[in-house]
Amino acid sequence: MVAEKPSKKLFAVKLRVWRQAGPSAPGAFVEYSLNTVNPDMSFLEMLDVLNDDLTMKGEEPVAFAHDCREGICGTCSCTINGKPHGPGQGVATCQVYMRAYRDGDVITIEPFRAKAFPIIKDLVVDRSAFDKIQQAGGYITARAGSAPDANAIPVPKGDADLAMDAAQCIGCGACVAACKNASAMLFVAAKVGHLGVLPQGQAERDRRVLAMVSTMDSLGFGSCTNQYECSAACPKLISHDFIARMNRDYMGASFRQMFKAEAASTGGGAG
Amino acid sequence: MATLDSKIPAGPLAEKWRKHKVDMKLVNPANKRKYEVIVVGAGLAGASAASSLADLGYKVKNFVFHDSPRRAHSIAAQGGINAAKNYQNDGDSVYRLFYDTLKGGDYRAREANVHRLAEVSVNIIDQCAALGVPFAREYGGLLANRSFGGAQVSRTFYARGQTGQQLLLGAYSSLSRTVGQGLVELHTHSEMLDLVVVDGHAKGIIVRDLITGAITRHSADAVILATGGYGNVFNLATYARGSNTTAIWRAYKRGACFANPCYTQIHPTCIPVSGDYQSKLTLMSESLRNDGRIWVPKKKEDRLKKPSEIPEADRDYYLERIYPSFGNLCPRDVASRAAKRMCDEGRGVGESGLGVYLDFADAINRLGENGVRERYGNLFDIYHEITAESAYKQPMRIYPAVHYTMGGLWVDYNLMSNVPGLFVLGEANFSDHGANRLGASALMQGLADGYFVIPYTIGDYLAGQKPGSRPSTDRAEFKQAEENVSSMNKRFLASKGKEPVSHFHKRLGKIMWEHCGMARTKASLEEALKLIPALREEFHANVKVPGSADTLNQSLEQAGRVADFIELGELLCRDALTREESCGGHFREEHQWPDGECKRDDEKFAHVAAWEFQGDGKTPLRNTEPLNYEFTKMSVRSYK
Ligand SMILES: Cc1cc2nc3c(=O)[nH]c(=O)nc-3n(C[C@H](O)[C@H](O)[C@H](O)COP(=O)(O)OP(=O)(O)OC[C@H]3O[C@@H](n4cnc5c(N)ncnc54)[C@H](O)[C@@H]3O)c2cc1C
Ligand code: FES
User: Fold this and answer.
1) What pLDDT score does B148 carry?
2) Cα(A154) to centroid of ligand 1, in Å?
3) Residues B49 and B185 in one domain
4) Which one of B39, B44, B130, B451 has the fewest beta carbons within 10 angstroms of its own beta carbon?
């Protein structure tokens, strides 16, 4: 039984939506008016309504990325009126509700823009660069079956909480889209921070940060100039403190690596 | 007639798995590289399987329709994962977890499977902690637990309200490692659209690249499906929008039996529907029932009053009244049906009348607002975001919604379907939860299957396949399957209809919810079995799919998935109609005790119903696998 809620007043908005047929096709904004917006609708439900209208008119609907629609899978990725994930704080596109808008509003909707995130179609971008960074080192090596009892390694609650603060990253890429240099530092720092504060993560700590940072650099992400737009746009509000922490890790690891290389070339350190 | 040999090992319950591990054949390490295994899906089940098999030395190809394995629907699980660690010293044990799960499933699961699940649960926590999953901790640094979903011991491990996310990211990290090491070939944005069966064995799949539209053939020595649940057959559900039944449905049409499709779980605590445009329902974690009290007004006339204007004496805390020993913590199916009964009596709250209150006033008095915020802050925020109401000031309104599917492809003890070489893991199989799943047990099952069961059992199958004998993709079976897929897409794009795919999905959802939802009757199911075939015809005649097949085309993707949902919906209703009893999530109004509880019929229905496809438009065949309870007594489930 789907219950109707009759009492809500519907309103009208004008949408300016980025349409681009494919990766190498030219793109442009196209305007649409939508007159039946319910304030309780989510932003993506509003796009659903637009798409059903377009389909019935025989036009191609707007391609947009989405899945969980509750702010956890990191799939949705619209820049709304210039802001990645739109007007809210600490929310993803799918958690924006139309009650944030008023009758007559003009809403501009674009994909997340960054060199490392090429546009696939309309509002959908390719974020596989993030997977590549993870593949380079975003893990603790522990084969199934090899683990000791979980309580054998106590983790101070503060460390576990800090790790969790970083681990919450949903991998959406808003940090990259918000950064004027399109840097992926917050994303990488969150993973390096999560695994680096835990005792389990120590064995691969140096290797991890070096591999992830160099892969990030090779994939066309820009460098960080400490503006912290990333944290402000992050749907999980992950703190830029993790970037400072990663910079320290990176320096330490680079130094140790240099030292090791030197020791190896002078014949020391073997044994 | 399919052969359904459960292959349950003989011997005492607690010895079966250990003994089976010794008895199974092994593949010698030098040969492992010669076997290729396809894993479809990278949720908890798929990601853990893919990386574990790669670490063993098999060549693994992993396919997901998502743009990254990290987006699988497992990411959304909130509450936690069970394990019989007994870290709390509160009387838990492997046996107790086994018993609770079996009883919770209303004695419709296999004893041996459930016991194995409870046994390996302890290893899962070890594995996840080693991978760096930031589980909640006590001040002493040891792991914290909570009681969850009707359990009387605290055996649930959690990571804030994001347990599924953290477990998935753990599994994803191992998968990423093995991809980086070149042990797994990862195909994202790649949707499996058919299974290829050669000489009776599953030997490959047909895949569409969702970005380029290219259709490709892939052969392997074995195929694993870990493609999640089919709850979106109801359209509105707590699932991610993309979750679908296509992989297992198309495998069904290639001969794999579909077991117990009618066992669907309806979760009691979701945010009620607000309008016709709605695309999904949001779960409010069950953990809220630890501190929230559920009630409706005693008098119908009060239902639209502000809750604060209804005095204590006029409130009916119905779960506490009907189930004094479990109260607000009774199992999901019991709590959901009770909410429905209250609303059917006309006492439901909110404009639609389809809601009950979940009230935190007592908890706030006891713990203070901050105490409550500490425990449930993120959930209260979600509720506020969606409804614009503060649950600190007024009770939440909640209503049941479809949340999980216990049914799925039939598998034996080795997790192999009746099609040799086709394995099914996680929510996609039917194996461990019987007619009802307990909270925090799906994450456990997904990881058990992937980390600790399939690495052993797949070897037993592969050892019997000659290395290097996998068929070439030039074979007729591959060609035929590929043509099947392309012609289906062509038909959709050529259809001259008028309605978008979503229109049909909504209508299917309405039929399912009204006729085959929380309460089912012979009449409602027979009605559904008329409406669904009619909807199917209308869909194929009147659907509009714009665009082309050689680019990203979300309408085309959806069309295929909804076509499958419509067919599955029919099977689900047929299964519900033939199961003339009530058990767990399957409630037939004709079969209830005077107090409204499920009335099982163990004499006639202590079996698995495994449906076998007989061809389009033909009635499928209902095979049965008897369930034998050797070690437990099938008691009547009571939570009073
Ligand atoms: C909101 C919510 C909260 C939950 N909370 C809990 C909880 O607290 N505790 C608990 O134990 N359980 C919980 N569950 C249930 C649990 O999350 C799921 O049952 C479980 O995660 C399913 O895992 P899976 O690996 O089987 O499938 P999924 O995680 O759904 O993964 C499916 C995978 O298959 C891929 N796929 C599917 N079809 C195809 C195809 N045709 N081609 C290619 N790839 C395909 C997808 O890309 C994806 O990678 C919750 C469920 C929901 C909806
Ligand atoms: S759709 Fe999953 S985070 Fe928005």
Assistant:
1) 82
2) 30
3) yes
4) B130
Examine the domain organization and report whether A137 and A261 are in the same domain: yes
Looking at the structure, do residues A81 and A210 belong to the same domain, yes or no? no
Contacts of A56 in chain B (CB under 8 A): 498-500, 544
**Distance in Å, CA A62 to ligand 2 centroid:** 17
Which residues in chain B show pLDDT less than 50? none
Nearest to B130 among A95, A140, A156 (CB): A140
AA letter at B459: G
pLDDT at B1: 86
- Residue A211 sits in which domain range? 128-265
In this complex, how many residue pairs, one in chain A and one in chain B, have their CB atoms less than 8 Å apart?
239
Phi, psi of B338 (to 5 degrees): -65, -40
Q: Please, what is the angle between helix B522-542 and helix B554-578, to 10°?
A: 160
Which residue is it, tokens 């999560």?
A194
Atom number in ligand 1 closest to CA B443: 11
Query: Looking at chain A, how many residues does it have?
Result: 271
pLDDT tens per residue, range B376-403 = 888 899 899 999 999 999 999 999 999 9
Say how many domains are in chain B: 3
CB B235 within 8 A of CB A62: no
How many domains does one find in chain A? 2
Q: Tell me the best of A42, A43, A73 to mutate to test the pocket of ligand 2, counting ligand atoms within 8 Å of each CB and taking the most.
A: A73
- Give bridge partners of residue B543 from the DSSP assignment: B499
**Interface residue B130 vs chain A (CB under 8 A):** yes
Same-domain check for residues B249 and B324: no
* Contact criterion met (CB below 8 Å) for A62 and A17: yes
User: Has residue A5 been placed in a domain?
Assistant: no
Q: Which residues line ligand 1 at a C-beta cut-off of 6 Å?
A: B 40-46, 63-66, 72-74, 76-81, 163-164, 191-192, 226-229, 238-239, 243-244, 246-247, 283, 403-404, 426-428, 440-443, 446
Enumerate the residues of chain A whose CB falls inside 8 A of the CB of residue B180. Answer: 135-137
pLDDT < 50 stretches in chain A: 1-6, 268-271
Same domain, A150 and A244: yes
Select from A78, A99, A121 the last residue of a domain: A121
Is there a contact between B51 and B178 (Cβ–Cβ < 8 Å)?
Answer: yes
- Residue A113: CATH number of its domain: 3.10.20.30
User: Does any domain span residue A253?
Assistant: yes
**Confidence at residue A269, expressed as pLDDT on a 0 to 100 scale:** 43
Chain A residues within an 8 Å CB radius of B68: 127-128, 130-131, 171
pLDDT of residue A267: 55
Asked whether residue A165 is domain-assigned, the answer is yes
A246: CATH: 1.10.1060.10
How many other CB atoms are found less than 10 A from the CB of residue B537?
A: 11
Indicate whether B120 and B258 sit together in one domain.
yes
Q: What is the pLDDT of residue B587?
A: 96
Q: Which long-range contacts (CB under 8 A, 24 or more apart) does A236-243 make?
A: A236/A90, A236/A168, A236/A169, A236/A170, A237/A89, A237/A90, A238/A165, A238/A166, A238/A168, A238/A169, A238/A175, A238/A186, A238/A190, A239/A165, A240/A186, A242/A166, A242/A186, A242/A189, A242/A190, A242/A192, A242/A193, A243/A185, A243/A186, A243/A189
Model ipTM?
A: 0.95
| Residues of B annotated as part of the active site | 332
Of A69, A164, A171, the CB nearest to B241: A69
What is the pLDDT at residue A121?
A: 98
pLDDT of residue A271: 40
- Test site for ligand 1: of B64, B147, B267, most ligand atoms within 8 A of the Cβ: B64
Task: Measure CB to CB from residue B552 to each of A63, A128, A136 and give the nearest one.
Answer: A63
Q: Which ligand is nearest to the CA of B429?
A: 1
> Quick one: closest CA in B to A149, which residue?
B126
Based on the fold, state whether residues B304 and B429 are members of the same structural domain.
Answer: no
